UniProtKB/TrEMBL annotation, chain B:
SUPFAM superfamilies: MetI-like. It is a multi-pass membrane protein. It comes from Streptomyces misionensis. Gene3D superfamilies: MetI-like (1.10.3720.10). The keyword Transmembrane helix applies. Residues 102-304 form the ABC transmembrane type-1 domain. GO terms for cellular component: plasma membrane. InterPro entries: BPD_transp_1_N, MetI-like, MetI-like_sf. GO terms for biological process: transmembrane transport. This is ABC transporter permease. It is found in: Cell membrane. It holds the Pfam family BPD_transp_1_N. The keyword Electron transport does not apply.
TrEMBL record, chain C:
PANTHER family: D,D-DIPEPTIDE TRANSPORT SYSTEM PERMEASE PROTEIN DDPC-RELATED, OLIGOPEPTIDE TRANSPORT SYSTEM PERMEASE PROTEIN APPC. Residues 1-18 have a biased composition (Low complexity). It comes from the Bacteria. Residues 1-24 are annotated as: Disordered. Belongs to the binding-protein-dependent transport system permease family. One of its GO terms (biological process) is transmembrane transport. Keywords: Cell membrane, Membrane, Transmembrane, Transmembrane helix, Transport. The keyword Electron transport does not apply. Signal peptide: none annotated. This is ABC transporter permease.
Automatic annotation (TrEMBL), chain D:
This is ABC transporter ATP-binding protein. GO terms for biological process: peptide transport. It is a peripheral membrane protein. It is found in: Cell membrane. The keyword Ubl conjugation does not apply. GO terms for cellular component: plasma membrane. Residues 352-382 are annotated as: Disordered.
Length: 513, 326, 290, 646
């Protein structure tokens, strides 16, 4: 299995060792509110942190990003469009009912039902049928080959509940009264929307009993309050901290930074002036002081991005070394205002122009980056107006194509480069290709990679697509993000990696040795 | 004191006026949410899942694409049956969601109001009695600073002092159970009360000073009515109506303050619910909550209005015309 | 003290020709006025006197005080001291706009309602009641939040929502003046009603309106910075105390001055404005011609 | 400035009763806020049990402050700076606030001017009377005690002539006269030895005035209580007090037995005051007045404060310290009197109220002269300045019963004549005046104000308002609110002139010149054009108000109680001014007043209004000398004047 790249991986103070003794109850702060536990309903990043403790998927993802057995002990792919999962036996839901194939089918059908408007619907959009082909066997057929599909059966795309439960509680799942039902390592015992969730370990879980018996996740949206809570000992740790927030935390906690595979990029609409002019895009790329942004705005807690796809996203497709080598060949546009001016002079907009860039209020670091960019663009004659809008408005704006210059801010849920490459670089993905990037070679490479079951060949095709796009600059990748986990000095989180929070992360909490 | 019954006409006019006010407000809120740009369906589906079919399904489910009047009537019909719809974001019934938050915010506002009343009114009386002296100036200055400090900044300072330095009170969260809840709500309530206390202080001080200067107070002194009785029965009674009106008005301040205070202290109350619902454009929730808050404020106003004739006989209908001296 | 008689009978004879002593200017008030002038000067000239206030040094990032930066720098490497001075403009302008706009609305509607009475009065009063029934900050939050977070929208919403206090105040003041002999004398001179309203009544209601405007100004500084704290308010990058406070809050435990400087100025300007407003009211109510 | 020396004080031998209830000696009061200046400069007076002492003097002379100092209730911003006050032999100035508070109610109580503000609006009258009862005699706790208190309250109400049910009434449910009685009962609740009544009747109409004065007199006798009556109304003081102190600008200028002082004043100020008081029985032609006005505190020179206005002033008056000395023997009651006039020896008998003054031709002759030109049959309608016919006005609509302020009122104001409108408070005088000038609507009847026909039920339109403005102008009662506080006198007058020009008056010459001419007409110096109202005295303000009205060269001037708020000296000035202007400009005047003496002094005709109806109308002489209607007789009877002339 590929190890996380050294600079994208954990940079904690101590090794992830811990004593194997039971831990009573811990409280962790989460940085914003959760008002529904159902990830299909409220598709925030934080819901996953909670839901993956209580619910499982067919396959699981190791902290390093490797696909491993989950509720399916094995899976095979008889042909390019068929997946057969053999389910684990003897598993029970936390309400005591046994886990069977019908539950899997019901869970997937729930997501696919357009009436439910599930946020996960995209993951099963290419599925033509889901059938229980035995009491403990499920067969999924796709309408077209999709080599990355297996990732959609990991917690990022599917969390399984019981058929009976789903039928009885349609539309109410994840609320205070109707908690999540799953087979996971923990059982949710209490949920107060926008306040906290309580969980306790599930004695009937099929895995090893976790050391941490009970935990409480508190939602503390205010950064200052969060820090005071840590300093005053009201919480034992905090998850999902923004990189720029952690400066005050060092004295109170151990802070671990891990690449979270997320990417922040600028998307140029290549179908619209002035962004259809590659010189303009290059001028902007040269004017973006990405090193400075990472250093200044993110306090060094991020990595300057060479491409849209973070290196960890290649998972077990391609060894880290080869990913880096491939990325190294992408034309790099270093910070160079003179070069930027020269590019702009070559363009059809030599006298400069005015553009607008919106960022979501939940991403202040994006705003700061935009301001930094505006500052240097001003020097080459481009006026960039920066505007803050709500996350809601920003999300709504993304697909509409009204803004020719946009931020792309993406948190992947899988460990496959296609998750980003397919929607954003393939011209056939009309809803998501916000750059309207349409290069035949790239389209072809992506299409054939989709059907290719050979890992190496597929990796090659994807790399071609990513590299070509890197040179063409429909997106200017700014940085690959990191997330910070702060834990009090007497506990540790084993194996903190870029995929640490895709699975039941709390099972890896230990008392510090 | 024998209290005549409340004038019926007065009560009816006030209650009728309140109902009209609420109706206009509900239309306004409803219109506002429809006019505003953005699309809750998209937010709901997130970045990845916004396929046209899914969008259409969501819109149909929440009646997002029917005409305005139809939407409003549908909603109003629901409201009259005590059905406020379901939250787009959580799928839970709006009434239950609001109901679930009500207790905490109610306690917060109640405690805040209690703090404000207990500090502001006696403070106002004290400063009025000691007017233009050192105590008065000191208290007034403190009030001025309290009034001028944004709630979130005040909250941060209090957290820093009392949670981090002195460790007297917890920094965040609602706590569990009566005593613990109270312990958790002390700092938020004080934060919430800061500016309102200052407002009540100012108001009470002005009202008491105005009353103290009244002829009837001088006359009461001049005929030997004991000082204490003058203060309680004459001065304070006279100041009651303006202070009461002020208390009715500060309810609005308090409710507005909860937004910031709940944010700072991570309290899951109506204020933070509103912020979240606004961010996600959870139309049914925002609508119901806005209306709910407006109703509270309007009711507070109504109560103070109706209380006035009870306190002030001049506002009651005269039993007989002015008699003539005989 | 009022100078006009009670409804009942001949004038109160205690109002005499003696001119009451002019209210002394207290040292505190003088200091307040000086601070207000300084703040206004910073708002007016700060940005031109400090041409480099928005110079970024992004690679250097947030620095501690020292090295030519009195209060350190923010995440974009901008000097916090200079930003704070430059920030007076947007904070105070926004709040002043709210206060003045509300004063304008309040004076126009209050004057019309108070002078004309009848239907106009009824409508204006209902309108004020309606606005009073909604907590201003909440509505601004909803309007600005849902309407797309525009600063202009927030200022306008706050302006409209602040106006009922002005409307009521001016209306009451006008109604107090409305039937005073000097107004009726102007009417019996055959002066047009507009003239009576604008030249006779209005100037006499002005002191209360001015005092209230100062108080509203102070309130708006606080309200706008609260909105900035919630992420609604001035556009990003603009120097604004509320925004700076919100943005630099995470520096609180490393470089407290980054967050404290704007916070202190918010509180200071609100205190000064509140104090001046109170004083104006006090002085004019003592003079008895408010 | 002076202190009255102890030797000049009325000693025991000087006829004052020995067991003094109140002894004020050399009391000084000064303002402490802002510039420190003296307000009361060493005032001494004494009150014996059962005695009624009157303190008279023009507005601002320090009457109220002096007695408030006695009760320890000085307002903020003024303090006692010297002298002694002893109540029943006990020096009270040295006592702490608590001890002084304990004296109030029992030793001394204060009754104030305005019955409408003196009682707490939210407490019943009974409750407020009970609050003052002595606690040891009427305990508050216990059922029986409460019933006893209630009975006591009823008894107290009966004492002031009010029925028991008043105990449960709130002040706003009572009339002014009833309120003043209730307040009196409250003031007497703790049975004080001394009652100080500070202008107790000023806010009442003459009928109520007389009743309240009678009540106070009766109570004083029944209770053998000392009574200090503060008033600016000389008639009131002389008719009901035993002794009189004349206060002027913070000093006592004269004191002595009421009858003696009235008959033979020993100070020119007293004499001038008495002279300028109009009489209800005869017209004084001209009515003497005192020039100028009371100097405000802080601008008083050395010597006699009255020197600047005194007709008999000599050099010594401006320098000699003020001392109270006995008048020369021979003056009535000389042994019991003191005067502060330094020239008392030099001045021969000053005219008193009894003395027939300057060139008065006698009442009947004057009357005949005046009425000779006017036909007895009544005024001619054709050239009348104002014709009111069958006018009715009802206030209040809908549910509450409403109040018929005017019913079927007809009145004619002939051109060039002064018509007085009299009636008790609330009779509808002001309402009628406001209707005549278009400030108030009316329900029925017709009103013709010169060329303008006003219609019932609506306000005049802009054109009518202008024509009305050119014909009719008004002077209001309250000089303090009559002028826009922010505008200078000049600006006010310029605006009036501009309005007059717009309304069709041909004003020739320069506007500033016209302003000066107006000021000159009302007897104000030119430099007053730059002053703001705050810098003017009440009389001066009223002159400006007259000047503003004159700017339009009206044919009808309505004066609504235009002199009611002024001191007699100033009232005389304004009355003289009006009479003279009427002569020179020949406009008609509708003169509203409740003071029959003023009517006698100025009016050609008089109409009596009672409860919204005109009950009597005729020439002044007819109506005042041979009243036909009950109401007129009652009004006349209420005038507190001893008929000295007839
Ligand atoms: N609180 C005060 N502070 C300063 N000066 C005052 C105050 N109260 C009264 N004065 C001044 O003291 C003087 C005397 O006032 P006072 O009220 O005793 O007069 P008065 O003789 O009772 O007059 P009036 O007939 O008008 O009641 C006036 O010139 C007045 O302006
Ligand atoms: N605007 C009004 N609304 C209701 N009632 C009114 C109004 N104006 C006057 N009245 C009533 O009409 C009656 C006549 O009042 P008006 O003022 O004309 O009396 P007045 O003779 O001028 O009395 P005063 O001597 O007290 O000035 C009074 O009972 C008064 O209460
Ligand atoms: Mg007085
Ligand atoms: Mg009147």
């Amino acid at each position: 299995a590929p190890q996380p790249a050294s600079d994208g991986g954990a940079t904690g103070h101590r090794g992830a060792q811990g004593a194997d003794v039971p831990v009573g109850e811990l409280t962790f702060a989460l940085p914003s509110s959760v008002s529904s536990l159902d990830v299909g309903r409220e598709s925030g990043v934080l819901n996953y942190l909670v839901a993956t403790l209580a619910q499982e998927s067919l396959v699981s993802v190791s902290p390093a990003g490797k696909l491993e057995p989950g509720l399916a002990t094995a899976w095979r792919q008889p042909d390019a469009t068929t997946y057969v999962f053999t389910l684990r036996r003897g598993v029970v839901f936390t309400d005591g009912s046994p886990f069977t194939a019908a539950d899997v089918v019901a869970s997937i059908d729930e997501i696919r039902d357009p009436k439910n408007g599930s946020a996960l619907a995209y993951a099963f959009a290419g599925v033509s049928s889901v059938k229980a082909t035995g009491s403990h066997e499920v067969t999924i057929r796709l309408s077209a080959p999709d080599a990355a599909f297996i990732w959609n059966t990991s917690p990022g795309g599917l969390l399984i509940s019981s058929e009976k439960f789903l039928a009885a509680n349609r539309g109410k799942v994840g609320t205070e009264k109707t908690l999540l039902l799953g087979t996971g390592a923990y059982r949710i015992t209490e949920f107060a929307a926008d306040s906290h969730v309580r969980l306790e370990s599930n004695p009937h879980w099929w895995g090893a009993r976790p050391a941490l018996r009970k935990l409480k996740l508190s939602f503390v949206p205010d950064a200052g309050t969060r820090l005071v809570a840590m300093k005053s000992g009201a919480v034992d740790g905090a998850l999902g901290l923004a990189a720029d927030e952690t400066s005050g935390w060092a004295s109170a906690a151990d802070v671990t930074y891990t690449g979270d595979r997320s990417v922040v990029a600028l998307a140029f609409d290549t179908a619209k002036a002035p962004w259809n002019d590659p010189h303009v895009r290059r001028a902007v790329a040269h004017a973006a002081d990405r090193e400075g942004m990472v250093k200044g705005i993110l306090h060094g807690r991020a990595e300057v991005a060479d491409a849209l796809v973070a290196p960890e996203m290649w998972g077990d497709l391609l060894p880290a070394g080869q990913v880096r080598a491939g990325y190294a060949k992408i034309t790099s546009y270093g910070f160079d205002l003179a070069a930027a001016r020269a590019e702009l002079a070559k363009s059809a907009h030599a006298d400069g122009f005015t553009a607008e860039l919106h960022y979501p209020s939940s991403g202040p670091q994006l705003g700061k980056a935009a301001l930094a960019l505006a500052d240097s663009l001003k020097k080459i004659g481009i006026t960039l107006r920066v505007k803050e809008i709500t996350l809601e408005a920003w999300v709504a704006e993304l697909g509409t194509g009204k803004q020719p210059l946009q931020f792309l801010w993406y948190f992947p849920v899988t460990g496959d480069p296609a998750e980003l490459a397919d929607p954003y670089l393939n011209a056939s993905a009309t809803a998501t290709d916000i750059a309207h990037y349409d290069v035949t070679a790239v389209n072809k490479a992506l299409d054939s990679a989709k059907a290719d079951t050979d890992k190496a060949r597929r990796a090659g095709k994807l790399m071609t697509a990513v590299r070509t796009a890197g040179d063409d600059l429909p997106y200017l990748p700014l940085w690959w993000g990191q997330t910070a986990t702060a834990l009090s000095k007497d506990i540790v989180l084993q194996q903190p990696g870029p995929f640490a929070f895709v699975g039941p992360w709390a099972t890896r909490i230990r008392k510090a040795a | 004191m024998n209290r005549g019954p409340l004038p019926l006409r007065y009560v009816l006019t006030r209650v009728g006026g309140t109902l009209v006010l609420l109706f206009v407000l509900s239309v306004a809120v409803f219109a506002l949410l429809r006019i505003a740009p953005g699309d809750p369906a998209r937010t709901l589906l997130g970045q990845r899942g916004a396929t046209p079919q899914a969008l259409a399904a969501v819109r149909a489910r929440y009646h997002l694409d029917s005409p305005f009047a139809a939407q409003y009537l549908h909603w109003l019909g629901g409201v009259l049956h005590l059905d406020l719809g379901t939250s787009i974001r959580t799928g839970a019934p709006v009434s239950a969601t609001i109901g679930g938050r009500l207790a905490l915010t109610g306690q917060l506002v109640g405690l805040g109001l209690a703090v404000a009343l207990l500090l502001g009114i006696p403070g106002g009386i004290l400063t009025a009695l000691r007017r233009y002296r050192a105590t008065d100036r000191a208290v007034q200055t403190a009030g001025l600073v309290a009034l001028s400090t944004p709630a979130f900044a005040g909250g941060l300072v209090l957290i820093y002092l009392f949670s981090l330095m002195l460790r007297w009170f917890p920094a965040y969260g609602p706590g569990q159970g009566g005593g613990d809840r109270l312990h958790h709500l002390v700092l938020p309530a004080v934060t919430l009360a800061l500016s309102v206390t200052a407002v009540l202080l100012k108001l009470t001080r002005a009202a008491v000073i105005r009353e103290l200067a009244k002829e009837h107070v001088v006359f009461a002194r001049a005929r030997g009515v004991p000082e204490r009785r003058i203060l309680v029965d004459y001065v304070l009674r006279g100041a009651l109506v303006p202070v009461l009106t002020g208390v009715g008005l500060v309810v609005a301040y308090l409710l507005a303050g909860t937004v910031l205070v709940e944010q700072v202290f991570a309290l899951p109350g109506l204020g933070s619910l509103l912020v979240e619902s606004v961010t996600y454009r959870d139309v049914p929730l925002v609508q119901a909550e806005a209306l709910f808050i407006a109703t509270l404020v309007v009711l507070a106003g109504l109560v103070t209005d109706l209380a006035q004739p009870l306190i002030d006989p001049r506002l009651r209908p005269a039993r007989t015309g002015k008699g003539n001296a005989r | 003290m009022t100078d006009h008689p009670t409804a009942a009978g001949p004038a109160d004879r205690t109002g005499t020709t003696a001119r009451r002593p002019r209210p002394r200017i207290r040292p505190l008030t003088a200091a307040g006025a000086a601070v207000a002038v300084l703040l206004l000067a910073a708002a007016a000239f700060g940005q031109s006197l400090l041409p480099g206030w928005d110079a970024q040094d992004i690679a250097a990032g947030a620095r501690m005080p020292g090295g030519g930066h009195l209060l350190g720098t923010d995440a974009l490497g901008r000097d916090i001291a200079e930003m704070t001075i430059a920030g007076a403009r947007s904070t105070l302008t926004g709040a002043a706009l709210v206060a003045l706009g509300s004063m304008l609305i309040g004076n126009v509607l209050g004057l019309l309602a108070g002078y004309l009475g009848g239907w106009t009065d009824m409508l204006v009063r209902r309108w004020a009641d309606l606005l009073l029934a909604v907590p201003a900050l909440l509505v601004t939050l909803v309007v600005a939040g849902i309407g797309g977070g525009g600063y202009a929208l927030a200022v306008c919403a706050l302006m409209v929502l602040t106006s009922p206090s002005d409307i009521r105040l001016v209306r009451t003041a006008v109604r107090e003046q409305r039937h005073l002999p000097y107004v009726e004398a102007a009417e019996t001179l055959g002066l047009p009603r507009r003239t009576v309203m604008l030249r006779h009544i209005w100037p006499n209601t002005l002191p209360v309106a001015v005092a209230n405007t100062l108080l509203n100004f102070a309130g708006s500084v606080v309200a706008l910075s609260s909105l900035s704290f919630l992420g609604l308010g001035v556009p990003p990058g603009a120097p604004d105390w509320g925004r700076m406070l919100a943005e630099n809050r995470d520096l609180l435990y490393t470089n407290p001055s980054a967050a404290l400087a704007p916070a202190v100025l918010i509180v200071l300007s609100a205190v000064v404005l509140n104090h001046l407003g109170d004083r104006v009211l006090e002085v004019f109510s003592k003079r008895g011609n408010a | 400035m002076t202190t009255s020396t102890p030797t000049a004080e009325p000693g025991p031998g000087a006829g004052t009763p020995t067991a003094s209830l109140l002894d004020v000696d050399g009391l000084r009061i000064a303002a402490t806020a802002g510039a420190r200046h003296s307000i009361v400069d060493g005032v001494s007076f004494a009150v014996a049990p059962g005695e009624c002492v009157g303190v008279v003097g023009e507005s601002g002379s320090g009457k109220s402050l002096a007695v408030r100092a006695v009760t320890g209730l000085l307002p903020d911003g003024v303090t006692v700076t010297g002298g002694t006050v002893s109540l029943g032999g006990q020096d009270v100035l040295g006592l702490g606030p608590r001890a002084r508070g304990a004296l109030r109610g029992r030793r001394v109580a204060l009754l104030m001017q305005d019955p409408f503000t003196m009682l707490h609006p939210q407490l019943t009258c009974g409750r407020q009377i009970a609050d003052g009862l002595r606690e040891e005699e009427h305990p508050r706790r216990g059922r029986a005690a409460r019933a006893a208190r209630r009975a006591e309250v009823v008894r107290r109400l009966a004492e002031v002539g009010l029925p028991a049910e008043i105990a449960d009434r709130y002040p706003h449910e009572l009339s002014g006269g009833m309120l003043q009685r209730a307040a009196t009962a409250a003031a007497l609740a703790a049975d004080p030895d001394l009652l100080i009544a500070d202008e107790p009747t000023t806010a009442l109409d003459s009928a109520n005035q007389a009743a309240v004065l009678a009540l106070l007199g009766r109570l004083r006798h029944e209770r053998a209580m000392g009574l200090v009556l503060i008033t600016h109304d000389l008639r009131v003081a002389f008719s009901s007090c035993d002794r009189i102190y004349v206060l002027y600008a913070g000093s006592v200028l004269e004191h002595g037995p009421a009858g003696d002082v009235q008959a033979a004043p020993q100070h020119p100020y007293t004499a001038a005051l008495l002279a300028s008081e109009p009489s209800v029985f005869r017209r004084k032609d001209p009515l003497p007045s005192i020039p100028g006005s009371v100097p405000p505190p802080g601008s008083r020179g050395a010597g006699c404060p009255f020197a600047v206005r005194c007709a008999h002033v000599a050099a010594e008056c401006r320098t000699a310290p003020l001392t109270l000395a006995a008048p020369p023997a021979g003056a009535p009651g000389a042994d019991r009197r003191r005067t502060a006039c330094a020239r008392i020896g030099a001045l021969t008998a000053l005219p008193g109220a009894a003395g027939e003054d300057t060139g008065d031709a006698g009442p009947r002759q004057a009357r005949e002269e005046r009425t000779a030109g006017a036909p007895h049959a009544g005024p001619r309608r054709s050239d009348a300045a104002l014709v009111v016919e069958g006018v009715g006005r009802r206030f209040g609509t809908g549910a509450d019963a409403g109040h018929q302020a005017l019913s079927d009122v007809s009145l004619t104001v002939p051109a060039g004549e002064i018509t007085a409108l009299v009636g008790r408070s609330g009779s509808g005088k002001t309402t009628l005046a406001r209707i005549a000038i278009g400030l108030e609507t009316f329900d029925s009847g017709t009103v013709r104000s010169g060329p303008v026909e006003l219609r019932a039920g609506g306000r005049p339109g802009p054109a009518d308002r202008r024509r009305l403005a050119a014909h009719t102008q008004i002077v209001f009662q309250d000089p303090y609110a009559s002028l826009s506080p922010l505008r200078t006198v000049g600006a006010t007058l310029r605006e009036a002139l501009a309005a007059a020009r717009r309304n069709g008056l041909a004003v020739d010459g320069d506007r500033d010149q016209a302003v000066l001419a107006l000021l000159d007409q009302v007897g104000l110096p030119a430099h007053y054009a730059d002053r703001r109202p705050a810098a003017l005295s009440g009389g001066e303000r009223q002159r400006v108000a007259v000047a503003r009205a004159l700017a339009a060269r009206p044919r009808l001037l309505i004066c609504d109680e235009a002199v009611a708020a002024l001191d007699v000296s100033v009232q005389a000035q304004i009355l003289g001014l009006l009479a003279e202007l009427r002569r020179s400009q020949n406009f008609a005047v509708l003169f509203i007043t409740h003071d029959l003496a003023v009517v006698r002094q100025i009016a050609d005709r008089v109409a009596v209004l009672s409860r919204g109806r005109v009950v009597e109308e005729g020439t002044t002489a007819e109506v005042l000398d041979h009243p036909r209607h009950e109401e007129t007789r009652r009004l006349l009877a209420a005038v507190p004047e001893r008929e000295v002339a007839d």
